[in-house]
Design goal:
four-stranded antiparallel sheet; Jelly Rolls; 14 strands; binds fe (ii) ion; 389 residues; eight-stranded mixed sheet; globular; alpha+beta; metal ion binding; IPNS-like_sf; binds 2-oxoglutaric acid
Length: 389
């Protein structure tokens, strides 16, 4: 692979053509060189000509506004607080708890103004019979009745399956781009994919009602917690912005036929900071149009410890990393926390029940008592704060 040790201050979000990675040759080599630079120096890209069937994508785009137009009573019936797997409907809240590079390790509260529906393909909770209590955080979703929105669940589940497959293929391209064996990141996933349950969301960003209120934002600056995010911008309404190395906010407007792909904290940590989990935000649309988006968040297996990472990158990758670190306007805090040394599933459920003690006590009482033997601790977020899956 040709070497280009020239860390770039991106002034726009680059596009990679996925089809070029699918057959050997100079186009594929060039794809991997660009991908390496993007992973280290921007952490965001558009992916065009991807493997997800556009008919399936278009169905999800059509269903997004239809779901949010369902009567409030139906949406309340599938409120996520009723789900042990934290799946379902989430009304416009004031604030939620999510990672933000604020100088502190771990999640902190940030503001958001959006309505959302979290979904996943149903997973059989029996798969985890005999496993510790924390392994029982995956399961079936809460769906609106079929007759209220015919074909909705089937369309979303088909979409989910195709994006999930793309995500594993893309993870192997990332490994290769960084000079590792294409299967190197498999250590972070379950070989039995039924034991993985990425989360996806339909998002609706209502237009601003009070432009002078700085708290009224789609979602404030944050990084995603998981491994990779595949974002479908499901309406032609801009708002997503990405922070580059110099701290400038770059617009990331919708481009037909693409996904926006970005890297999460888990990938940043297992790559020991080489891959960048980039801060991003969504500014609420000025109106009258509504912004819809569909992020798909992949994660590591529940049965790995992030702090076990020991990636054997070639020297040139470490050099690119060090060159980037010198240009960053603030340090990358990939340093392992106490929770990174625990099994990832335990860490994940701990954060979830911490942010939703009432859900912890209701759905995971044994685990909740183990984590909080003296009862719930006081929360910094509002009653319907949530963490990104
Ligand atoms: O809706 C978007 O465009 C981005 C959403 C996002 O960043 C998130 O949910 O983590
Ligand atoms: Fe995000």
């Amino acid at each position: 692979m040709a070497t280009t040790i020239t860390p770039t201050h991106y002034s726009s979000i680059p596009t990679l053509d996925y089809s070029k990675s699918q057959k050997p040759g100079p186009d594929r080599d060039a794809f991997l060189v660009s991908l390496r630079d993007i992973l280290i120096n921007i952490g965001f890209l558009y992916l065009s000509n991807h493997s997800v069937d556009m008919q399936v994508v278009n169905k999800v785009i059509e269903y997004s506004p239809k779901f949010f137009q369902l009567p409030r009573t139906l949406k309340d019936e599938i409120d996520f607080t009723n789900s042990p797997a934290f799946l379902g409907y989430f009304n416009v809240g004031g604030e939620r708890v999510i990672h933000a590079r604020s100088g502190t390790e771990g999640p902190s509260a940030i503001s958001e103004t959006r309505e959302q529906f979290t979904f996943a393909a149903d997973r059989d909770p029996k798969l985890f019979d005999g496993y510790p209590e924390w392994a029982k955080q995956d399961g079936s979703g809460l769906w609106p009745p079929e007759e209220a929105i015919p074909g909705f669940k089937a369309a979303l589940v088909e979409y989910y399956a195709q994006v999930e497959e793309l995500s594993y293929n893309f993870a192997s391209l990332i490994a290769e781009a960084l000079g590792l064996d294409p299967a190197a990141f498999e250590q972070w996933f379950d070989q039995d994919r039924r034991k993985m349950q990425p989360r996806a969301k339909l998002m609706r960003y209502p237009p601003l009602t009070n432009p002078s209120n700085p708290k009224e934002t789609g979602i404030a600056s944050h990084e995603d917690r998981g491994f990779l995010t595949f974002l479908l911008q499901a309406s032609n309404v801009a708002g997503l912005e990405v922070r580059n190395l110099s701290g400038e906010w770059l617009p990331c407007p919708p481009i037909d036929g693409t996904f926006v792909v970005n890297l999460g904290r888990a990938l940043e940590k297992v790559s020991r900071g080489v891959c960048l989990a980039t801060s991003h935000r969504v500014l609420s649309p000025p109106g009258p149009e509504v912004r819809y988006s569909v992020p798909f968040f992949t994660n590591v297996s529940m049965f790995v410890r992030i702090a076990d990472a020991d990636p054997q990158f070639p020297q040139e990758v470490w050099e690119m990393y060090r060159a980037r670190q010198r240009k960053l306007d603030r340090p990358v805090e990939w340093v392992y926390s106490k929770m990174d040394k625990e099994l990832a599933g335990l860490t994940r459920l701990t954060y979830k029940v911490k942010n939703h003690p009432e859900m912890g006590m209701r759905h995971h009482p044994v685990f909740f008592k183990e984590v909080f033997p003296n009862g719930p601790i006081s929360k910094t977020s509002t009653a319907n704060g949530a963490i990104t899956a």
